[in-house]
Amino acid sequence: MPTAAMIVIGDEILSGRTQDVNVQVLAQALGARGITLAEVRVIPDDVATIVRTVNELRGQMDNVFTSGGIGPTHDDITADCIAQAFDVGISIRDDARAILATNYADPENDLTDARLRMARIPDGATLIDNPISKAPGFTIGNVHVMAGVPKIFAAMVESIIPTLTGGAPMLSDEVRIEKGEGTLAAPLGEIAARHPQVSIGSYPRAVDGRFVVNVVARSTDADLLATVMAELRQLA
Amino acid sequence: MPTAAMIVIGDEILSGRTQDVNVQVLAQALGARGITLAEVRVIPDDVATIVRTVNELRGQMDNVFTSGGIGPTHDDITADCIAQAFDVGISIRDDARAILATNYADPENDLTDARLRMARIPDGATLIDNPISKAPGFTIGNVHVMAGVPKIFAAMVESIIPTLTGGAPMLSDEVRIEKGEGTLAAPLGEIAARHPQVSIGSYPRAVDGRFVVNVVARSTDADLLATVMAELRQLA
């Protein structure tokens, strides 16, 4: 399966101020497309860190997605960092400017220098549609640069995912078992050992003071998944 | 300030099945202790990836925290990976076994081989208290290995944070401004440029179809933070 990494550019996540919700949106969309989300990194709004991380991951993965830092303010440095990572120029592009202009009643006056920062696109990039607030994301090489605002991020994911080369969609199913993991561990391990092609995870949760276990099986093979689920349901 | 990285060991996060909530808990606790959370990585339940990531980050950071993979089931491989990363042995330890035993009515019979996996501790590690379900986490070198279940993770964070060397606690304040970022960007950039020692972030959100901006200032210097906040409130 093709691989992907996500880079969350986010002082606000690292400080604990904000709960990220974008990882799950991207993860689910990639799974349905048959692309494995192999790693997520959350890094600070720092030029050297962003450039280094983008260059490291774009060499390792089929796709890299970034979230955050493409707005109009001083702390929005992602587009410049991406240009630096790819060693290309960056400037206000006419197509991006025209798209931005559709968001304003009086573009001549409303497209301030700050807002025009959102039309600065690295040379050679293609735009990613933003149906919410117009300011586009962009793709350069295998790197997809998207907004951090959750509604806009989700809309950009919907724009970009269908354009990517996918594999067989990952299928998953799960069974909730009201036993402790300590009891389940041995028979569960036997099932997992019998079916090494199916990823089987065991996730305990506390419910009303007792632990219940959700056992999740994942595979791209529907028949094999059904076989494993039947075995897992015997444990319940 | 001392630095930290967090490694979320979690197929369930990367598949999109589960929303991580542990990052924010750790991030806030570290900020209050004056430790900078400099990076988070979410990686799969894969031995080579875990070993490589732990070794890379423990060399770069003052502290590394892991979450997930220390239960009794076949997919709980974190403790073995940590032993491998540090190139030390791992075995059932009497103190960990004694703590586990307090969780069961009939330890002689209830401490099955599966449950005893939770008493396997890398040589040289010290235990991290788990008041919820007893099975301990552990610290080896600068790496703190904790459970993924949110309630247990949070309890372990409370156990371990006070034992770490902290710096000046990071202080933050914010103001909500009902203007677009495009309007705010120029004056905000001037304030940020005047106070390079204060980290100022601008976070737009959609509220009832309009964008409002939360501007967050962060500093370890209370007086400087107050000065900057006064300037920021002038923009509202």
Q: Which properties best describe this structure?
A:
homodimer, 236 residues, alpha/beta, Alpha-Beta Plaits, 2 domains, six-stranded mixed β-sheet, three-stranded antiparallel β-sheet, 10 helices
Structural features, described:
The structure is a homodimer of 236-residue chains. The first copy, chain A, is α/β, with parallel strands linked by helices. The first copy, chain A, folds into two domains: 3-163, Molybdenum Cofactor Biosythetic Enzyme, Chain A (3-Layer(aba) Sandwich); 171-233, Ribosomal protein S10 (Alpha-Beta Plaits). The first copy, chain A, is 39% helix and 27% strand. In chain A, the strands form three sheets. In chain A, strands 2-1-3-8-7-6 form a six-stranded mixed beta sheet, sandwiched between helices. A three-stranded antiparallel beta sheet of chain A has the order 9-11-10. In chain A, strand 7 (137-140) and strand 8 (143-146) form a beta hairpin. In chain A, helix 2 (22-33) runs parallel beside helix 8 (150-160) and helix 3 crosses helix 4. The radius of gyration of chain A is 22 Å and the shape is elongated. Chain A starts with a strand and ends with a helix. The mean pLDDT of chain A is 95. The interface between A and B is large, with 72 and 71 residues.
